[in-house]
Amino acid sequence: MFTGIVERTGTIVSLTDLGGVQRLTVTAPGIAGRLHEGDSLAVSGVCLTALDIGPDSLAEGLFHADLAAETLSKTSLGSLRPGSVVNLEMPVEAGSPLGGHIVQGHVDGTGVLVALEPVAPQTSPHFDKETTDWTLKVRVPEHVRPWMVLKGSVALEGISLTIADFDGEAVTVAILPLTYWRTNLHTLAVGAPVNVEADVLVKLAYARMEEEKKPELELTEAWLVAEGF
């Protein structure tokens, strides 16, 4: 489990087709040295398993992970290229502060970056891109929209964020300068795919609500015959 508090960024080195899975290689100084074979970590919000952790890869600050077909279809990782910047987070340890919200690393789908703009006018003589906050707008996949709750949580690229506005199609969130520069957000352009994971607590509540809408099963003679009783 993760909290959506990105530790640092890494850089895609390669994505290699192994005839089944895709082997992802990431340079991750400060992270790779803490990994062991089989460990989990979040890469731009996607929970992956570290592979081929050895002296050579650790010396170079690298780790590897395999991307299954499900991961490639639901996330942006398969579309990234060498040099792309990704967010990295190690799993939260039991008893550690839950700084963001519960993030599983199970991405629901990819959204599209609609806008990422500084709040302060860039024409202002006091504008400083290093210290201004930003407004991020992402159009989320249709099947994810029922789980977008005003002032609720959402993980975008693995970053725990609060939904400031939702127009039925796109979420708007506020981005602090620290978040903007510490994560991969400052490298993204309009139109870029964005990994979206809805708050699992909202999803569970929604599923329960939908279940309660279903009519109770009526045991009729016709139903019993049809079911072979």
Distance between the termini: 44 Å
> Overall 3D geometry?
globular
Helix content estimate: 10-25%
Name the quaternary structure. Answer: single chain
What is the string of helix and strand elements? EEEEHEHEEEEEEHEHH
Work out the strand percent: 25-35%
Strand segment count: 12
Largest sheet strand order = 4-3-6-1-2-5
Q: Give a quick account of the main beta sheet: strands, pairing sense, barrel closure.
A: 6 strands, antiparallel
Low-confidence stretches: none
Can you count the helices?
5
Category by helix and strand content? alpha+beta
Q: Which value, in Å, is the CA radius of gyration?
A: 21 Å
Mean pLDDT: 90
What are the salient characteristics of this protein?
229 residues, alpha+beta, six-stranded antiparallel sheet, six-stranded antiparallel barrel, 5 helices, globular
Describe this structure in words.
- There is one protein chain.
- The protein has 5 helices and 12 strands.
- It is of the alpha+beta class.
- The strands form 2 sheets. It has a 6-stranded antiparallel β-sheet with strand order 4-3-6-1-2-5. A 6-stranded antiparallel barrel has the order 7-8-11-10-9-12.
- β9 (153-156) and β10 form a beta hairpin.
- It is globular.
